[in-house]
Fold this protein.
Amino acid sequence: MTFLEQLSGAQRQNHSMLCVGLDPEPGKFPGALKGQASKIYDFCARIADATADLAIAFKPQIAYFAAHRAEAQLERLIAHLRANAPHVPVILDAKRGDIGATAEQYAIEAFERYGADAVTLSPFMGFDSVQPYLKHHGKGAFLLCRTSNPGGDDLQNQRLASVPGQPLLYEHIARLAQGPWNTNGQLGLVVGATYPAEIERVRSLAPTLPLLIPGVGAQGGDAVATIQAGYRQSGGQTTGAVIVSSSRAILYASADDDFAQAARREAMRTRDLLQSALTV
């Protein structure tokens, strides 16, 4: 299956728009695991097992593994997800952005070494920095578009005088992703939950693309406003999936040995909150 087919299947099976972010920080680990970088796999695998029937996707952030020399644990974790939750796609949050042969190597890293179904990318070096990922059949890529950090205004919210209509940069990225850049039909966009008005604008420009929306939970994004801004239906069918990512609020729902059960409760609460927003 392609990434978008996997995503659609997980959404239907798990009745979910919740993406569980896997950003392991050993210093925040609960109980006997606290401070043990060698236990990153164990921690993340238990979280994943507890939430596999509640998630539309899992999103491991590569830096949290690489910082602790835990790339082998990331490989093992994604293999675990493949074996135990094969219906839930894996989005590798890497935010790569390079050109030519280097981009080709990063694509091999994401899709062949780690076995991810999709990857996050920075589009600011242009289409030739994105194209190598799209050559991997059925694999997805999410382009940074309107991110949740305050510094996103420095570039993303600037007008492009040289482009007809003088769109903001993030609007231009959305149009490119919806149109000429989407050569394999598997592109999506990253839009922060802290900017619901911009989510609505991106959705109007890219009505069929999946939106990966971080920022709900610890970052303070409003779940209901996020869904109302990004979710659309056409003839009873969703057009462009909404994938709302929550990491810390789920991972560190408990500082005790019941962390997996607490993560499940928080994931279920968030999943149900997102679903309820469809009827508000």
The CA atoms of residues 23 and 61 lie 6 Å apart. Strands lie at 18-22, 57-60, 91-96, 118-121, 140-146, 187-191, 211-213, 233-234, 237-238, 242-246.
